[in-house]
Amino acid sequence: MATQRHRQAGVGDPCTVVALPYHADPAHYFRHVCGEPGAVLLDSGRPTAARGRYDIVSAWPVETLEPAAGESGASFLGRLRRSVQALGPARLEGQHDLPFVGGLIGYLAYDFGRRLEDRLSASPPSGDATGTADARFGVYDWALISDHTLHTTLVLFHPRCPESKRRRIVATLNRATPPPVRHLPPVEHPQPVGHIEPSAPERTARHFQLTSPFAPDMPRAAYRQAIARVHQYIQAGDCYQVNFAQRFQAGYRGDPWAAYVALRAACPTPFAGYVSLGGDDAILSLSPERFLRLNDRQIEARPIKGTRPRGATLQADEREARTLQESTKDRAENLMIVDLLRNDIGRVARIGTVRVPELFSLESYPNVHHLVSSVTAELAQGLDAFDLLAASFPGGSITGAPKLRAMQIIDELEHHARSVYCGSLLYIDVRGQMDSSIMIRSLLARDGRIHCWGGGGIVMDSHWESEYQESLDKVKVLMRTLEAL
Asked: Where does the Chorismate-utilising enzyme C-terminal domain lie (predicted)?
């Protein structure tokens, strides 16, 4: 085990960095902490996914923050800002350029947007049956970071992290033997059985099993009626595009981490992640979409809009990709969201710096092809990552245009609360660096039920049958993988 200190210009005391053997699969290390308080994994999907570079693992936060009842979004973001400031500055010494040196890791649920916009109802009309907080962040004074470009795995400790905690963390991550697997007995009835507590003294890796297949909350006829209503709003000039989604649910028992491992193997993506919510509750995200990145005051967003399923043969697959790239409808959808993001980001960008360096690029994943664009800018002086979030959340690619009216229509027509779906999984470190996903292709495991959502952008040219099928295409690999366990 090698210990070293790395240098980077900046304020604060230097971080301590401990080198561990490199592993491309984050499960090698995360399995040792996945059941601990505040366990979180930001997963780049390597070695299969192409875009991601870093994995970030942590647990045992110094502090955990959730919005209070009735607290505004601005107030909560202010508390987050003060928590990062209280942890204190830190710097790196040496050659490595790590993305995180201590700070916040957590999520904003889609419905956190209601706390930022008082023209929306305080809660979704359908309510949130999951009971999940609108946001949850830990303040972390350490992180294990794997760099898949340099093939390094380093444990970084913020200067405020106590020496006793450092030794315990390194010893925990260095455990060579994986935890034993305790299998569950066969399912004997279709109802969820609640939590199955881990054995003392340490949580063991356990099997995951659905107690019922996934089923949609919305009948096809209701879906068709909702799309017709969106078309009416577009014809009336209320909006140009609405992202409409439906939810699927199943019962489960066992360990969501085992489910995540299976999902990651079936559908690796560059902005994936796992967030333990305690017990057998967790967020499992297999997102391909970056929301916002802030690095040295440079902003980047990478909206996805436009989808086709992968083909069963090479020829069919190439045909689907070509059809997507040539689709006037999909390109128009993508351009609407690019314009929306230019507007959102422009509210906090230095004047004249907003750019669109990439438009209608093709990205392919195990289940679908996507059209992806990028929007970049420089953050205005005096502003920070929290200001950027306040100006831009939730992401335009999962609301529609114009954003506020689209969100109001979503409230009216969707039969369920979105909860964490279409929210954001993110970190903000003490230097002000941020990266974030949009939590599409994401599942929430809570209280013996696992929830999964699929949706897409509805425009005037949309046909309800193809949109319904697209909502299935996006998530069927996730549902089928869990149903096969």
From this structure: 221-474
Catalytic residue among 63, 163, 289, 465, which?
Answer: 289
Candidates 117, 133, 126; CA nearest to 69 is 133
Confidence (pTM): 0.90
Rounding to the nearest 10 degrees, give the CA dihedral for residues 263, 39, 143, 160: 170
Question: Residue 79, Cβ neighbours under 10 Å: how many?
Answer: 15
How many CA atoms lie within 13 Å of 369's alpha carbon, on the beta-carbon side?
A: 22
Counting residues of the chain whose pLDDT is more than 90, the rounded percentage is: 82
Longest dimension (CA), the chain: 66
**Overall size of the chain counted in residues:** 485
> Cβ(378)–Cβ(299) under 8 Å?
yes
Q: Please indicate whether residue 329 is annotated as part of the active site.
A: no
CA distance 333 to 316: 24
Q: Annotated catalytic, 289?
A: yes
Strands (E), 170-236: 181-182, 205-206, 208-210, 215-216
Helix, strand, coil share of the chain (percent; to 5): 30, 30, 40
The catalytic residue among 305, 403, 474, 476 is 305
| DSSP H/E element including 424 | strand 424-429
In angstroms, the CA 348 to CA 143 distance is 30
